[in-house]
Specification:
Length: about 625
């Protein structure tokens, strides 16, 4: 159809709403919908969602984004000189990804045809993305067929992407380019890409379903007398017995519809167990994860109801800890604890640095206990969550912020720490795009929940922890320099266990007594040779590794016999090769002292620190060595 005729029909429609036979029925229907949405003909651009909202929507549609990754990467090369771009949107018309010709990407920003742009018909009128989503089929919108005049420089072809199981629309792919250079084959290309993405999602679902079934089969012997339902994402039913289906229907008529657990369709994975618990009292749920991501689960319909365990509040469980309760009498640890006390009194943000397992959180809790009243202690492991969940966990979210969100919204860790201490472990793992939000909260003392526009004022102390070299991460561009300076006003290195001398044996006895008491056993006894081997070991896993070893020895040992070298793990037993008999331990000690003094150039303070003993103790032992030499 000639462009001039379409343009005249467009003008007539905007003047008096007159329909024209020259306009395709699908386009005319979209114009009429756009008119009902009160879209102005001169609307300059689509709206943009906020960065936080875009982050939330990308997380919500992570499976779609992942499945389209190959197509988007190919578009970067195939469309690089075609004055066109490939766009991926969510089912609401929000642009999640855009790749292609750099010129097209730049021009698209004039009308917000870019990441975060909202291209549903209700916001920008007739356009390929919004119209394909509205009518549920592929569509091409050329030039003046667009409802808004500023968008008529573009010709766009889009096709909806559907879920492989229920064929529900889960997004759209669109190829957009200048009206003068647009390829008429792009509609067929968009349809092919939509089918490609659907196939990728389908194959991924099949693999996930197999993983859930393998998990179920590995546990089947434990559930021989129970009825089982196995499900995948969105509640897709993978396995069930007839009796399980009947029992589930008896307990809840809202649970299963059209071969799926309908109650889970729009629920985020972290709420699966809670939702099933509400609908099936007495049932238990095992969530199946792959690479830390929830892919399905197994519902066990127990014959008798089991009381639901009360929710635990970690912030209340972790009581303040005194510095004196930190085990360690070596000179190095005494120095570190004294330094930590001074830092705690300052009230400034503190960065605790040290290897994994050295006890950084113990120091954080002691710092927390200095303030009176201490307020809540709220820890968050930035490396222990999928990157797309960290934002809602840290900042919280408003009601209705995303599908499956709690109806009342949810406060994040920042709000929970108001009046207390926020402890961010593995801070170096925080995604770069979230670091700016955290910086703003720390600078302004105001937090905005995901999907919200109202700030909440917070007053908290911050202790961050890392086993990374954050200065190196800053230099590499993986950590913001301004955030580093904000969280590291004070820095404290927690020493590894191998630098703490006789603290190993102090911790050995303390952990042994505690572990034995929990098991209802007498404290463990160690032979001198076993203690020597444990003291000689380098402990790469630090205090955490020591605790695990001691608990293993107590569980596997005999209360009647002491623990000897042969009972230790092989890597520890061989650490002190052929340990000298007790009569030669003094010789070993003398050699260690002389070597440390020589290595430190005669500096006794440094030598004492290296040996992990008090300087006064070193003076006494050196005096004894001199007296022995004179004798």
């Amino acid at each position: 159809m000639p462009h001039r005729e379409i343009a005249r029909a467009w003008e007539a429609f905007h003047q008096d709403g007159a329909a024209s036979a020259v306009i395709r029925p699908a386009v005319m229907a979209s114009w009429q919908r756009s008119r009902l949405h009160l879209i102005a003909a001169d609307r300059a651009a689509a709206p943009l969602v906020s960065e936080a909202e875009l982050f939330r929507r990308r997380h919500q549609n992570n499976r779609l984004v992942t499945a389209a990754r190959l197509a988007m990467e190919e578009a970067r090369h195939l469309l690089s000189d075609a004055h066109s771009m490939l766009i991926l949107s969510d089912p609401d018309g929000t642009i999640l990804e855009a790749e292609g010709d750099a010129r097209a990407l730049d021009t698209g920003q004039e009308v917000k045809l870019q990441q975060g742009g909202l291209w549903c018909e209700a916001e920008i009128g007739t356009n390929a993305i919004g119209t394909a989503l509205a009518c549920g089929r592929p569509v091409q919108i050329h030039a003046a067929e667009h409802f808004c005049a500023p968008v008529q420089r573009w010709t766009c072809a889009a096709a909806p992407v559907r879920h492989p199981l229920d064929r529900e629309i889960i997004g759209a792919v669109d190829i957009s380019g200048s009206t003068d250079t647009f390829n008429p084959q792009n509609l067929a290309h968009a349809v092919a890409l939509a089918h490609q993405i659907e196939a990728v999602i389908g194959r991924r679902m099949e693999m996930e379903h197999e993983q859930v079934l393998r998990h179920f089969l590995s546990k089947r012997s434990l559930w021989l007398t129970e009825e089982i339902l196995a499900f995948g994402r969105s509640g897709a039913l993978i396995y069930s017995t007839d009796r399980a289906l009947k029992e589930a229907a008896r307990r809840s008529d809202r649970l299963i519809t059209d071969g799926r657990l309908a109650a889970l369709k729009d629920v985020t994975p972290d709420a699966w167990a809670e939702r099933i618990g509400q609908l099936l009292p007495g049932a238990s749920v095992e969530i199946v994860r792959e690479d830390g991501e929830e892919i399905g689960g197994v519902v066990v319909l127990h014959a008798a109801r089991r009381p639901k365990p009360a929710q635990r509040d970690p912030a209340r469980e972790l009581e303040p800890l005194a510095f004196d309760a930190i085990i360690g009498e070596s000179a190095l640890m005494q120095e570190v604890k004294a330094k930590a006390r001074r830092m705690a009194d300052s009230g400034l943000p503190i960065l605790l640095e040290g290897e994994t397992g050295v006890g950084k959180e113990v120091f954080a809790r002691a710092i927390h206990g200095v303030r009176a009243p201490a307020g809540p202690f709220v820890p968050l492991n930035c490396g222990g969550l999928p990157r797309d969940l960290i934002a809602s966990e840290l900042f919280g979210y408003e009601k209705g912020a995303f599908t499956g969100a709690d109806a009342a919204g949810k406060q994040g860790k920042v709000e929970a720490a108001d009046g207390g201490l926020l402890c961010l472990d593995e801070i170096g793992e925080m995604p770069l795009e979230l670091q700016s939000y955290l910086l703003r909260v720390l600078e302004d003392g105001v937090v905005y929940r995901v999907g919200g526009h109202t700030g909440r004022r917070v007053d908290l102390r911050l202790v961050s922890m890392t086993n990374r070299d954050l200065t190196g991460e800053v230099a590499a561009g993986r950590f913001r320099k301004d955030l580093f300076y904000r969280i590291a006003a004070l820095r404290l290195r927690i020493p590894p266990l191998r630098e703490r001398g006789d603290d190993v044996l102090l911790l050995l006895d303390h952990i042994g007594r505690s572990a034995a008491a929990r098991a209802g056993l007498p404290p463990p006894r160690f032979t001198d040779a076993a203690r020597a081997a444990l003291a000689a070991y380098a402990w790469p896993g630090n205090v955490r590794e020591l605790r695990n070893v001691v608990e293993m020895l107590i569980a596997m040992g005999s209360a009647d016999a002491p623990i000897d070298v042969g009972d230790l793990p092989p890597e520890i037993a061989t650490a002190a090769e052929a340990p000298p008999p007790a009569t030669d331990l003094r010789t070993v000690e003398e050699a260690a002292i002389r070597a440390a003094v020589e290595a430190c150039g005669g500096n006794l303070t440094r030598a004492a620190r290296r040996l992990g003993i008090a300087r006064s103790t070193l003076y006494m032992r050196l005096a004894a060595l001199e007296a022995k030499g004179e004798g």
